[in-house]
Amino acid sequence: MSERWRSKAARALLTRLGHTDMRVAMRTLTATLLDGIDSPPTDLHGIASRLGIPIIEESIGGSGALRRTPDGLQIVCNPKQRLPRRRFTSRSNSSCPSATSENTSRKT
Length: 108
Prior knowledge:
Layout (H helix, E strand, L loop, with lengths): L7 H10 L4 H13 L9 H8 L3 E3 L6 E6 L2 E6 L5 H18 L8
Parallel strand pairs: 1-3
Antiparallel strand pairs: 2-3
């Protein structure tokens, strides 16, 4: 494993995907998520849907958040932010659960 990828999350991702090279691991992870997704720009709602994470817009005191609910996770974007910022928020927050293998849906 590269000296740059020593965090607990990086080690967990490499172990889960069975790789020692982070570039190869990320290509493996993203290939499944991007299969059939139109781009550019990338359909972030499509990717979030595959992860079981709804993206909602709500007036909040920041640009966005990854929120834990009784049903799982949801990405919250502030509709007052410009579209590029909302897209960044969605992209950033949708990568967290997929990289750490967190259970995104708690519905039974």
